[in-house]
Amino acid sequence: MGKYFTIDELCATDTGLDNTPNELELNNIKELIKVIDEVREYWTILCNLNKWGSGAITVNSGFRSEEVNKAIGGAKESEHKLGFAVDMKPSNGRNKEFWDFMVEYVKVKQLNFSQLINEKPKCNIPSWIHFSINGNKGYRKQIFTLV
Q1: Residue 89 φ/ψ, nearest 5 degrees
Q2: Pairing of strands 128-132, 85-90
Q3: How many CA atoms lie within 13 A of 68 on its CB side?
Q4: Which of 13, 34, 97, 128 could form an S-S bond across to 89 if both were Cys, CB 3.0 to 4.6 Å?
Q5: For the whole model, what pTM was predicted?
Q6: How big is the CA angle at 125 (ends 124 and 130), to the nearest 5 degrees?
């Protein structure tokens, strides 16, 4: 679907539960893929300039059906359930740099988004980054750390 990300990748789950999006959720996933494809483009440029290795981004979690979200203990009003959220990290291990990049990216691009979260950091280095482009409460533009 996208240049770097696929619908299957954003719907993958190891729970064994059905995680098939409906038509609205599928359209939201496609919208999300367009945004994170562009994120990947700019992240790759930064990685190349700084000789940080590959600009690839690993998706830990994307769309979650109600059943999948419940099984993994996701938030009741998770934007993952809408197809608008992704948990991701850079494949090159530059999690801190990726977090700094994402904070700057949403500001410079004046991007409408819901949340950008530094998740479960160790020594202020994110374990992964939650990014949602829309959600139950619209474009909140929240940037914060969740320990």
Answers
A1: -155, 155
A2: antiparallel
A3: 22
A4: 128
A5: 0.95
A6: 105
CA-CA distances (angstroms) from residue 27 to 34, 35, 80, 128? 11, 13, 13, 25
Helix orientation angle between 95-108 and 23-50, rounded to the nearest 10 degrees: 110
Cα 60 to the chain's mean position, in Å? 8
Can you read off the two tokens belonging to residue 78?
């998770």
Rounded to an integer, what distance in angstroms lies between the CA atom of residue 85 and that of residue 79? Answer: 5
Q: How far apart are CA 117 and CA 119, in angstroms?
A: 6
Q: With contact defined as beta carbons under 8 Å apart, do 78 and 85 qualify?
A: yes
Backbone angles phi, psi at 138, to 5 degrees: 75, -155
Q: What's the pLDDT tens digit per position in 111-138?
A: 999 999 999 999 989 999 999 998 777 7
DSSP string across 70-92: HHHT--TT-GGGGT-EEEEEETT
